[in-house]
Structures are given as structure tokens and as C-alpha cells.
Amino acid sequence: MNKHFLILLLLAFAGCSTERKNDGKIGNFQFSYELDTIHIDSKGEFFFLNNGLSGSTLSQSGELYIFNRPQLRLEIIDLDKKQLKDTVKFEVEGPNGIGALGINMINLTESGDFYFSSFTGLRQMDASGNLKRFINWDNEERIQDQLGTGKLISFDGIISRDGSKFYGTYSAEGRGGSSMADGLAIIDLKSLELKSIEVPKLSALKEFKIELDIDGMKTTSGDSYDLLLNDSKLIISQGSINGISVYDLVKDTLVTYDYQTELLPAAKPGNFQRKVATMEAFQEASTQRSKEPLFGDFMYDPENNLYYRISFLKDLNPDGNIDWKGVLSIFDEEFNLLHEEEGMGRYLGRKFIRDGKIYRFINIEDEMAFEVLTPTVNR
């Protein structure tokens, strides 16, 4: 149980920006939980599980939308009935084509439209799979004039529920999925008005990336970042650092929070090579990095007004296998750390909060299942 004394430091950019550090203990907080496993009936269809359900999303009614890459279809999962509810088929080419590389991320809007992000751009499609709009930031003169030279905006991001705004990131190093960013890019999808906000903690991810350079051909590998939109707050977390950045859309302020506890350090120690010249050295550096802590993304529970995050510590056993130690961190709405719980296991793959419960995807003999954590909290 931790109480946090707040330190406010004003920075000068984008109106106003503050930094806040958390240390110490807070109040009286009691936590317990129960675990259950649910299996999803595929109704005889083939589920694609190899990507851990990456890019899937929940609807406002609590249904899970998943893109099945081999089958080129959107699958809708009824989590109450624990079964496949419906599918929407797509084509690669043609007027409603989604492209050969498929879909990275799914966003749903109140109107029933889908926004699909891919390597080539952002597609707005109706509920039947008809293409309504295709957006590539690189081809939009209005966006490029505001962005400036040498920067790229990711196509992966969050679309507001009303479909009016895109919340993503930009980078001066390229378009590297969820591992390469310098700041936030907020775009009005009607006017194409762009607002960019530098986020130092995003840039700090570069300190932990591994670069392979073979005769001028460069490949990089780094930890990822995640975005969460909760009302007027955009929360940015990153795998290398035990802290977050919170941008307030109304106040136009950026607040950073740093954490360090008995269970989790302030950041990865970084005991691995950053620049290598052979594939063998690249693999060795990646192996060493994989043994270091990995800090999870934030999830919001509106029923209990709490944020949850699951991070990982990894120990190498004498037999050479990695022992995963999950740590659940619980925060209040002001991002004060209330509690940390060990013993969460290997929380990889898709996870989300639904009806006050934490769902995590698990593959059981090539069948879709979820471990469901039901918390009990007292404050």
C-alpha cells in the first residue's frame, strides 16, 4: 500500500506541461481476486490465434471484434454467450479491398463504422464492409504542411467514438508500428487539422532499442508503447519505463508520472548491447533484453474507477527456461499507485477490461479462451 507525495514541475510547451513524481504510501486499500477460464465456441469456424488477437477491440456493448488474417474476415465474439456471433468477409483488391497486408488495428464508432489501420493507411468502412474513405497522411497536403519535413505519422491509433478525431503518434525516425515515436499526433478527420505534442517519455524508448547495422543495412528492435483514451485524458505507457505520460485534451497539458516500488524498478537496467554488427550479436542482445522487466499498458475499469497495469519480471531457470512473474499494479483516477500484486503469470496477448473484470486471451490447444480475473476492492 503506497502513498504518493506529488511534485509539480512546470515545463514550457503546448500551453502548459507538468511533471509529477510518485513515492511513498497511500491510504488503506484492500484487494483480492478470483480467477476463472471461459472457452469460446467457434461454431465450427477456424479462429486465427497466432497473433494473440492483436489489434482486436471491444464494442460499447461488450462484444469482441477480431480480424482473422488468413480468412480475410472480421469475427464478432459474444462474450456473454461465449461463442462466435457473426462474421464480415473482406476482399484484398477491388473497391472495398483492405490490401494484401491485412489489418493491424480495429476501431469502432457510434455510427457502426469501422476504422481499419494497415501498413498503407487508414480505411473507414461501413458495417457491411463497404469502403467509405481511405486516408494516407503522406498524401494529404494539409497534414504535411502542418507536420513539417522528416516526420511520419503512424496509421495505428485511436479513433474517437464519434469518428471525428484520430489519436496517434509521429516520429522522425520512420513509421515503426508501436515501437517508434517522438510525440502525439491528434488529427481532426474532417478538417485535417493537426496538433502535435512532444512526449519525452516516448522519445526515451530510443535509449533501449537494439540496432543491427550490416554494411549500411539497418534493422532495429525496441519495446512498444500503448495509448489509452479515457474521457479527456490520453494515457501513454511504454514497455521500457515504469511511468506514464497523460495528455489532457481539454487543459492542453502533459503530466508525467514515475513509479518505483519494491516489486518493480523505475526502468529496465539496460544491460544489453545497443549497436551490433552481426545477426548472432543481435539475437544475443535481444535475449539479454528479454530477461529485463517489461512494463505493461494501462487499462481503465469504469465500474471501480481504477486503472490496472500488468508488468513482467523474467528469471532464467537453471534449465534455460524463462520464469515469468506478472505484477498487477492498481492506480486511482489521479494515477496514484494503490496496490501491487505478484503472481499474475504470463500475461501476454490481448487483454482488456469488461464489466469490471480483466480478460486475458489464452490459447488452449488451438482454441480461443480467456482467463477472467474478478477483483474485489475495498478503500
In brief:
By secondary structure, the chain is mainly β. The chain has 3 helices and 30 strands.
Describe this protein's structure:
By secondary structure, the protein is mainly beta. Helices cover 6% and strands 45% of the residues. It is built from three helices and 30 strands. The chain has helices at residues 141-147, 200-203, 279-290, and strands spanning 9-11, 16-21, 30-39, 57-58, 64-68, 73-78, 83-89, 105-108, 114-117, 122-125, 131-135, 152-153, 158-159, 165-171, 183-188, 194-198, 210-214, 217-221, 225-230, 233-238, 243-248, 253-258, 275-276, 298-301, 306-316, 322-331, 337-342, 351-354, 357-364, 367-378. It has a six-stranded mixed β-sheet, with no helix packed on it. Strands 12, 13, 14, 15 and 16 form a five-stranded antiparallel β-sheet that branches. Strands 3-30-29-28 form a four-stranded antiparallel β-sheet, with no helix packed on it.
Classify the helix fraction into a percent range: under 10%
What percentage of amino acids are in beta strands?
Answer: 35-45%
Tell me the structural class.
mainly beta
Number of strand elements:
30
Q: Given the structure, what is the number of helices? A: 3
Strands ordered across the widest β-sheet: 1-2-22-21-20-19
Q: Report the major sheet.
A: 6 strands, mixed
- What's the pLDDT, averaged over the residues? 88
State the shape.
Answer: globular
* Uncertain parts: 1-25
Rg, Cα atoms, Å: 21 Å
Cα-to-Cα separation, first versus last residue: 11 Å
